[in-house]
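Worked example 3. Consider a protein that binds tricarbonodiimidic diamide.
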Amino acid sequence: MTTLVPAKPGPYAFDPESTALVIIDMQRDFLEPGGFGSALGNDVSLLSSAVEPLQRVLATARELGMTIIHTREGHRPDMSDCPPAKFARGEFIGTDSPKGRILIRGEYGHDIVDELAPAPGEIVLDKPGKGSFCATDLDLILRNLGIKSLIVTGVTTEVCVHTTVREANDRGYECLVLEDCCGSYFPEFHEVALRMIAAQGGIFGWVGTSSDLLEMLPVNVAAGA
Ligand code: TIU
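Given these inputs, the predicted complex is written out as structure tokens:
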């Protein structure tokens, strides 16, 4: 059942059955004090506005039985998957923090915030880089599930969200980015990153809001039931 959502640069058409909700890196290390975001010198409270709208979208996606994918940026405990070029500009990766070793898998800070904790059966994808397709099995998983469209959310807008949308667009996935479900340590980067996605006729995808998406979803799902 095709659903149409108002978006930029024009309506976004998708079928919930072949669409995945992708929630990027809503990890304590980015959203809470003492982690990676703080170590980079950022005000992590700037990301918190994305949590509530994302909770609503996640609850609806669960109700509809949509595919849900949570990603986490981080590294193996021995950091063998952390490129020296990345470590050189983030020497605190792997160091101790109040929430465990920064950006290391298995540590408390590396995990997803309680408000958006993955439910059993939802896919949790660990990635060593900014993009969700780099050195992961995401493309294989999406193709196996028959996914054609991605509703993309999370943090940060201009880093991991943008990189993932660019990667997905090049692989043929149609991406809707929910602006209120993303966040950045730099409000101006958030704004411009979103504009870049929808510019030039939607050069990377579409940009919309969670309220527009949620308004359209139940109607069409009920009609198709
Ligand atoms: N997840 C993600 O965006 N990783 C980052 O390092 N983001 C920054 O904005 N630094």
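Take a moment to read the result before moving on. Residues 219-225 have pLDDT under 50 and may be disordered. The beta strands are 3-5, 12-14, 19-24, 67-73, 123-127, 149-155, 174-183, 206-208.
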